[in-house]
Amino acid sequence: MSQQLGTPERPLRVAIVGAGPAGFYAAEALLKQKDLTCQIDFFNRLPTPYGLVREGVAPDHQSIKSVTRVYDKLAASPNLRYFGNVTFSKDLTHADLRQHYDQIIYAVGAQSDRKMGIPGEDLVGSLPATIFVGWYNGHPDYRDMQFDLSHERVLVVGNGNVAMDVTRILVSDPDELAKTDMADYAIEALRASKVREVVMLGRRGPAQAAFTNPELKEFGELAGVDVIVDPADLELDELSAASLAEDKTAARNVELLRAYAARGATGAPKRIVMRFLVSPVEVIGKDGKVAAVRIERNRLVQTADGSMRPRGTGVFETLECGMILRSVGYKGVPLPDVPYDEASGTIPNVGGRVIDPATGAPVPGEYVVGWAKRGPSGVIGTNKPDAGATVALMLEDVPSLSPAPGDGNVEALLQARGVDYVSYIDWKTLDTHETSRGAEQGRPRVKVTRVAEMMDIIHRGRQ
Predict the structure, then answer these.
(1) Cα separation of 411 and 422, whole Å?
(2) What is the 3-state secondary structure (H, E, C) of the chain?
(3) Closest by Cα among 262, 257, 290, 294 to 276
(4) pLDDT value of residue 4
(5) CB distance 277 to 313 below 8 Å
């Protein structure tokens, strides 16, 4: 009986939880199989698809968002359905998916941030960078957040691309941001901002920084912004210097940083100060709010596995600031009835097959892709080969699968439960509304940032 799965008579039924890049690339890999007939259903908590492409990519990086054209083509397939505004475990349970689908793919990303674990971290004004990103990108969960931009200095902890994005946005010209799809309320808040200096703090040295060359190069192209780097921070230890020969990205980063150090201050009205080999050890408050951060100087030591790790030197200084944004790592959150590895913040898996953490045995028919699989690493394109590798294992498993007992009519199930789910046609109604408003202002789109308003527009479109 299992041999009939994946045929026109009995298509392979696949549920994908999460509609970001990793999920779409998994769908693409499945739909490309010539000898496989499958029916793929996406389930997404928000009405809007695309995950971090919509809610995480910086608004001044519009070219990256063009990848959604690929996803739109996939969504046009008669073998793919989209169910937005459907919350896993609330509107649709793990048991429901097991009943109606032969295979389940979790593409839920890493929605939570890692904390620094220092005193004062929970003071008002100490926040994850991801929340700031969600806020300026119009994510409904964060659109009502308040950020105190009345102080001249902000600290950003981290040396990855998210840290680079929030730093750049804080000092960018609001008139330039107003040409993007940044949320209107964020543009207005940044117009009123008093922030003049953003200090980036990296625990390790410039050779270990996780940002990419284009992100670093952009800093030097910002109008009215000086990029300040202390030449002393660029004096590399022997091992770090040697590592540059094998890492072209790191070598180019160090080259760019040295150019910024040589340029120095030009008297620009705003500045980005890039610090290396320093760690925050305490957030200092006043009246319950962030007032300063105590940092410690580090040195690098080689560990047993050959990596370079920071170690405090006992030399401290205090930097006054009005806000601190941490970007020190991300992790997934547990899904009800789905295995979870607390240490890594991922769904435990081997190559993409979900495993029972107690026994190490694969959970039949369950798979994972993207950050929920490998942790928060790579760029959007990294998800394509990652998803392809998981799909290869799924195809291997098809002959041994027991077909799902249900009839696959999940649409009727959602209707019976009164779930106001959003189809891809519904999403295109909202998409047209946003892009039309954007065209009137010479912008890519004007985002709708409240779910209730999204649903109102969709309901009118259905009528």
Answers:
(1) 11
(2) CHHHCCCCCCCEEEEEECCCHHHHHHHHHHHCCCCCCEEEEEECCCCCCCCHHHHCCCCCCHHHHCCHHHHHHHHCCCCEEEEECCCECCCECHHHHHHHCCEEEECCCCCEECCCCCCCCCCECEEEHHHHHHHHCCCCCCCCCCCCCCCCEEEEECCCHHHHHHHHHHHCCHHHHCCCCCCHHHHHHHHCCCCCEEEEECCCCHHHCCCCHHHHHHHCCCCCEEEEECHHHHCCCHHHHHHCCCCHHHHHHHHHHHHHHHHCCCCCCEEEEEECCEEEEEEEEECCEEEEEEEEEEEEEECCCCCEEEEEEEEEEEEECCEEEECCCEECCCCCCCCCECCCCECCEECCEEECCCCCCEEEEEEECCHHHHCCCCCHHHHHHHHHHHHHHHHHHHHHCCCCCCCCCHHHHHHHCCCCCECHHHHHHHHHHHHHHHHHCCCCCCCCCCHHHHHHHHHHHHC
(3) 257
(4) 84
(5) no
Q: Do residues 123 and 290 make contact, with C-beta atoms less than 8 angstroms apart?
A: yes
Q: Tokens for 370? A: 């993207």
For 331-348, how does the pLDDT look when each residue is reduced to its tens digit (9 = 90+)?
Answer: 788 899 999 999 888 999
Given a cut of 80, is residue 3 above it in pLDDT?
no
- Distance between first and last Cα of the chain: 43
Residue with tokens 């340029």: 263
**The model scores a pTM over 0.90:** yes
Average the pLDDT over 361-376 and give the result: 94
Q: What is the pLDDT of residue 37?
A: 96
* Per-residue confidence (pLDDT) for residue 153, from 0 to 100: 98
| CA gap 447, 180 in Å, rounded | 10
Distance between CA atoms of residues 365 and 403, nearest Å:
10
Query: What's the pLDDT score for residue 307?
Result: 81
* Structural domains of the chain in order of their starting residue, each with its CATH number: 2-111+331-422 (3.40.50.720), 115-328 (3.50.50.60)
